[in-house]
Amino acid sequence: MPDTSSLSLNTATVRRQWTLAQIIDGCARHGIGTISPWRDQVAEIGLKESARRIRDAGLALSGYCRGGLFPAIDRAGRRAALDDNRRAVDEALALSAPCLILVAGGLPKDGDGRIASKDLIGTREMVRDGIGELLEYARPAGMPLAIEPLHPMYAADRACVNTMAQANDLCDTLGPGVGIAVDVYHVWWDPALKREIERAGSASPSRLVAYHISDWLVPTTDLLLDRGMMGDGVIDLPLIRSWMEGAGYRGVHEVEIFSAANWWKRDPDEVLATCKARHRDCT
Amino acid sequence: MPDTSSLSLNTATVRRQWTLAQIIDGCARHGIGTISPWRDQVAEIGLKESARRIRDAGLALSGYCRGGLFPAIDRAGRRAALDDNRRAVDEALALSAPCLILVAGGLPKDGDGRIASKDLIGTREMVRDGIGELLEYARPAGMPLAIEPLHPMYAADRACVNTMAQANDLCDTLGPGVGIAVDVYHVWWDPALKREIERAGSASPSRLVAYHISDWLVPTTDLLLDRGMMGDGVIDLPLIRSWMEGAGYRGVHEVEIFSAANWWKRDPDEVLATCKARHRDCT
C-alpha cells in the first residue's frame, strides 16, 4: 500500500482553483512533499519566487511541465520551439527539477493554428531531431529529458509519440540524457506495455524517470479534460505499478488529472485529500 | 485515382436517415456496387428479404457487420456471445458476404452494463479463445473472420484489440480462416502501421481482407460519433492505400462514417455523392 511519501501532485490537477503559491501551501498543509509544476504557473509568480516558495515549503519536484512541441511548418518555427525548450531547461535547473517532461507535439500548424500537413512520418522525424538538438543543450547542463508518450487520440494535435515502444526507440536513437515519463492514462491500453516498461527499466541508466497516475473513465466525455481520479475508472493501477517497480522504478507516483467538469470544480482541499486517499487505497 | 468501382458503402454511414432497403436503392442509383450491412439493419427487414434485395439490385458485399464482443463476466455470458456469433456467421453466409467483421469487445460488464473487471490481459485471452471457438464453426462453413483492431480509446468499452500488431499476433495464434479489417480511423496513428500491413499481406493467404476509410477530425468532439469524411481530416489516405496495395490488397475501399452531428443529419443522397467524390479525390 503506497504511502503519501511516494505521492506527487502535478499542479494541473488543481490549476483552475489555485495559483502555484496556493498549491505549494496546500501541498505543505496536506503533507504532500513533492509537486510537478507547469511553466505557465511558474511564469505567473516568477521563476525566482517560485523556486523560493518551493524551497521554503520544503517541497521536492518530480518533474517540470513541460517542454516539447517541436514540429513546425518552417525552419523559423522549429528554431523558435528549440529556443523556448532551452529556456524550459534553464527553468527546470533553477527549480532543481529532476527532469523536463517533453510532449512531442503534433502535426505542424499554420499561422491560424490549423493543421497544415498530414505528414506524420516527417513530423516524427522533426520530433526526433528536435529532441536531439535540445539534448545538446540539456545533457551538458545535467537536465534529463523525459519523453512522455501520449495516447494515440492526441497523435494529430498534441503528440505524435504515442507508445512506449516508440519512446524506447527514440531513446535508443538519441542516447543518454533522455528517458521516459510513463503516464498510465496514455499507455494503459497498450498490449506491449509490460514488455516496454521492462525494456525502459533495463536500459543503463534506467529510462523510467517519471510515473504519472490518474484513471480512464467509462464513458469518457471529452478527449482532453475528462480524466478520472484513481479508482473511478478501469485502469489496473496496482498492476502497472508492480510492472514499474519490477523494472526498478523507485520514484514517486505523480497524480495528474485534467477534469474540467468534476475535479477542477471541487474544493481543492477536498481534491488533495482525495488524491491522498485514492493513492493509498487504489494504486 | 480510385474510381467508384472500388468504393463500398458501410451502411452505418447513412443509418440514421435510411433503412437498409433505402440504402440498397440509393447505392444502385448512385452506381455504388458494394455495401457492408449491419446486423440490426438486416434484422429489421429480414434476412431473406435483405438477401433478395441485395441480389436484385446487383450489389456485392465487402463484409458483414458485425460479430465479436466475446468477453463476458461469466461462462453463460461467453456462451451466449458465441451462440450469437454463430448466427452472425450463418447470416453472413446467407448474404454471400466475403467476411464477418469482428469487433473484439471490451472489459466484461455486469448485468447493469457497468464494467465489472479491470483485467485487460484476461479479457484479451477471452477474445483469443472466443475467436478460436468461433473459428471451429466458421472455418468449415467457409466464412472468413476479420478482426478489426479498434482505436485504443475504445480499449475499455468496445474492443481490446487495438493495434495491427496485436491482430497479427492473434492471427499467428489462431491459424487460417481469420484475417484483419484495416480501418484507417483506428490505426492511422500507429508508428508500426506500414510494417504490420506488410506483415499481414505477406501471410499466406493474405490477412488483408477489408479496408475501411473515413478521416480523423481535429478537433474530435466525440469519441464515438465524430468521424470525418475523407479529406476533412488529417489522415494521409493515399499513403495508407499505397501501403495496402504494396502489401497486395486488391479489394474495395469501404467508407464507414459515424457522424451524429454532421453526416447523419444530411440528405443521404448528398452523403453518397460526397462519398463518391471524396473517394475519387482524397483517398
Describe the fold and architecture.
Chain A is an alpha/beta fold. Chain A is built from ten helices and nine strands. In chain A, strands 3-2-1-9-8-7-6-5-4 form a nine-stranded parallel beta sheet. In chain A, helix 4 packs parallel to helix 5 and helix 8 packs parallel to helix 9. The first copy, chain A, starts with 6 loop residues before the first strand and ends with a helix. Chains A and B meet through helix 6 of A and helix 6 of B.
Share of helix of chain A, binned: 40-55%
Measured by residues with Cβ under 8 Å of the partner chain's Cβ, the largest interface is:
A-B, 32 and 32 residues
Question: Would you tell me the structural class of the helices and strands of chain A?
Answer: alpha/beta
Question: Number of DSSP helices of chain A?
Answer: 10
Inertia-based shape of chain A: globular
Strand elements of chain A, count? 9
Q: What is the arithmetic mean of pLDDT of chain A?
A: 97
Uncertain residue ranges of chain A: none
Largest sheet of chain A: 9 strands, parallel
What is the helix/strand order of chain A? EHEHHEEHEHEHEHHEHEH
Strand proportion of chain A, as a percent range, falls in 5-15%
C-alpha termini separation of chain A = 8 Å
The oligomerization state is homodimer
Radius of gyration of chain A: 18 Å
Largest beta sheet: strand ordering of chain A:
3-2-1-9-8-7-6-5-4
